[in-house]
Amino acid sequence: MKSTTIRNTQQLLKLNSMMASLLSCYASQPIKISGLLDYLHKHLRVNIIIPAVTFGLVYFLVDPCLYHKITSFPQTDDSLLLYQTSPRSSLLVPYSLNHDTLLKIRSINVRKWQQLHQYEQEYSEMGVDRRNNLSLEEFFDIYDGKWPVLLTDVVDKWPAYNWTGDFLNQHYGQEQVVMKAIDYHLDAAISRVFSDAYQISGDPLDQDGLTNAISLAVPLYRFYQNTENAHPKSWTYVEDELFIPMRPELRKGIGNTEYLQEDFFQLFPEDLRPWNAMLLWGTKYSRSSLHMDPYNWTGTNAVIQGHKWWKLYPPGQDEYLYIMKDRRSGFPLNCYKYNSVVDAFDPDLTKYPRFKKAVSIVFEQLPGEILFIPSGWFHQAYNSEETLAISSQVMNRNNYRVVLEEILKVGDIQRDSLPSDIDLMSPEQQVAMHDIAKLSVHQI
Ligand SMILES: O=C(O)CCC(=O)C(=O)O
Known about the structure:
The protein is of the alpha+beta class. The protein is built from 13 helices and 17 strands. The chain crosses the membrane at residues 43-62.
């Protein structure tokens, strides 16, 4: 037999992809090794035995079930997309996200992309990359579900990019919004200005790590009039999940982007889909709580105006983050929410000493940029000036398993009511087979 070595990247990658298919087949059906080798030999026209075995070993050493090639998705030219779901992660048993595994997948994909590019592409390992013109394939391989990224050429195409405070105030000034108000000293301007507002959350309290936080319903113009009065210990933040979704003319202002097009939440009946355009309009010094998103989805945050600072905590640090237990999100399906009692931008280290050990990546987000936050990452945003932004989320090939687990955790859908062959189905079928519609609507 003529022995040839693998000469170029394309061959290598093709073999890579075949090995991935082989592994996914391995999980579900017996393999006839001799037939398989004939097949590979015919198609690659090289002696693939040694490299194939080497690759097989490497894959098994990294993680025997890292790769699952899901054929039901549209494939790119060379069918190289590898997905991070595992054929052996049965929906019939609890699942937890493994950040180390995801980093291994990422680093293998980084090598692939470094080979594909003729130049050296640096991917950040301690910070966040700013990217434009990013292909969908590179997005799924390197970032989605694995590492945060800022995209700089998405938001500027949305009509919403032209929204201003004046525009919102002019058209919606009289409409009620949900607004968080913080007043550390209670005697500051804020408690006087909003003393007649409808209070949603009861007495001021230390809420989600923020001292003396109250949640109010106020006409938008009241917030707008008061934006200049912010103080480091006294500020306001419109955080309204429903304001945009309830106004189709505003909802339309948020353009489609290819990175969010695959969204399995759209398979849910409309009344069970999480609202997906949260209005975030905050004064200087305002901030979110430190939290991980409900459903553990991939979160997005598009800054229209202003600047945000972020602290993002890679998964696996729960012991340092002082996470509140048994809190529910209030979204349809009412999945758990995961909020910390620590304000990462002003932590009380005497009260929460373990927080010192938490490692985060810190960066600034500029107007016109959209941030993608992977499942499992705790995060907190701080508006260093008055800032207008919209957050959203997606459930796709890279996080659907994690999101389904969150839905199962709530317990409205019993795991043992799932069909026994659910693991053999495509992700879309699995999501639909949860039959969120029938199983939960009756019980909510
Ligand atoms: O911009 C912010 O305040 C953070 C919003 C956020 O983290 C979210 O919507 O999950």
